[in-house]
Amino acid sequence: MQVFNLFFKLLKSNKGIIIMYFAIFLTVALVISESQSVDGNNDQEKMKEEILKITIIDEDKETFGEGLTKYFSEGNKIIEMEYDEDAILDKLYWRKLDYALVIPKGFEKSLLDEDIDDMELKCMKVPGYFDASFFESELSTYTAKLKSLLQAGYSLEEAQQQLIDLQGEEIKVEVANFINENQNDKTTMFMLYVPYLFITLGMNGIGLILLTFNSPLVKARMECSSTTMKERMTGLICGIVLYGVLLMVAVMVVVIIRSQGSILTDVRLPYFLLNMFAMLLFSLSLGFFTGTIAKNQDVVSGLVNVLSLGLCFLGGVFVPYEFFGEGVLKVAKFVPTYWYAVTNMSIGAMTEMTPEFAKEIFWQTGLIAGYALVIFAVTIVIVANKRKKIA
């Protein structure tokens, strides 16, 4: 009990660092999740009106571009932009744009003249993003029909007008059955940033406390005390467990307030909690490891900054993993935060719990817990070796 009480006395002395990182987490998670999330029912109405947000940049300045823009403006939101790669990428990143299409100079001429090799339309999109694939499918259908009409003897203007007439006055949109009304909602996006909080506070909270416990003076006094090693370890483990529980409770309080209590009746809640718990185990193990190997507070701070930011950026927490190149993605799959992010987004998009989906969730959260077990085992080996050297 003495070690347990001492654990929280030391934790209280480091409350400034804990409050600082919790404030950073709340600021990042609330601001970014607000800008990147969608509101289920409102978004359904928006999809019916806009379907997709597209920019068509016509460098050819011919009839084809005008007809194409007119065709896709029906039911879509056309955003006028100049060709600026940085500006386009920025809008794609923040989901203010679903697809950027560029009609290169000379495209219409290559379309009408069989002696000229066909030119390809240029595009900028988010890899693997469903809306981008949907638009590309529509665009492919449009160009295929247009070429068929041209081969049938229609002029370009007549062919494009024919396609517009066939398009009809109204387009009915049905959201794909694997997307629910809560996909990318505020809760899902907020939960995405939980690893940063757990890693920073796990490493700082536990790391700094163990640093004190492992100092020569404190360790000597504990060895001379009446408490056994078993009692000391029990008190320390109970303190770490309760600290982890308090972290999860703090996050859930924010989520409940943010969702106005709706998360409590959300069928996804148990799976969100399971994913959070797996990440919490990893973070606590990382904190245990940090406190064991660190020599001073500066080392702990350095490890916290490097590992928390590195794992969150590489794991797809701060930067969506859809933007990762093939090489980066291969490396990211070795990082537990990547599996947390993938699982979190899968849970957010869940429509029903099937045995296959449950198996996938349990496998991915189990993988994160496996990382925690490995780090914990390595730390125990290090502790045992240190005790042997002292003995």
Question: Can you put this structure into words, describing what you see?
Answer:
The structure is a single chain. By secondary structure, the chain is mainly alpha-helical. The chain contains 17 helices and four strands. It has a four-stranded mixed sheet with strand order 2-1-3-4. Helix 10 runs antiparallel to helix 12 and helix 13 runs antiparallel to helix 16.
- Mean pLDDT over the full residue set: 82
Total number of helical segments?
17
Helical content band: 55-70%
How much strand?
under 5%
Helix and strand string, N-terminal first? Answer: HHHEHEHEHEHHHHHHHHHHH
SS-based structural class?
Answer: mainly alpha
> Gyration radius, to the nearest Å?
28 Å
Span between N and C termini?
26 Å
Placed side by side, the strands forming the largest sheet appear as 2-1-3-4
The major β-sheet equals: 4 strands, mixed
User: Total strand count, please?
Assistant: 4
Low-confidence stretches: 40-50, 175-181
Shape: elongated
Fold blueprint:
Elements: H1 2-13, H2 15-36, H3 40-50, E1 53-58, H4 63-72, E2 77-78, H5 85-93, E3 99-103, H6 107-112, E4 122-124, H7 130-151, H8 156-167, H9 186-191, H10 194-213, H11 216-224, H12 229-258, H13 269-293, H14 297-314, H15 326-332, H16 336-348, H17 355-390
Parallel strand pairs: 1-2, 1-3
Antiparallel strand pairs: 3-4
Helix pairs in contact: 1-12, 2-10, 4-8, 7-8, 10-12, 10-13, 10-14, 13-16, 13-17, 16-17
Labels describing this entry:
391 residues; mainly alpha; 17 helices; 69% helix; elongated
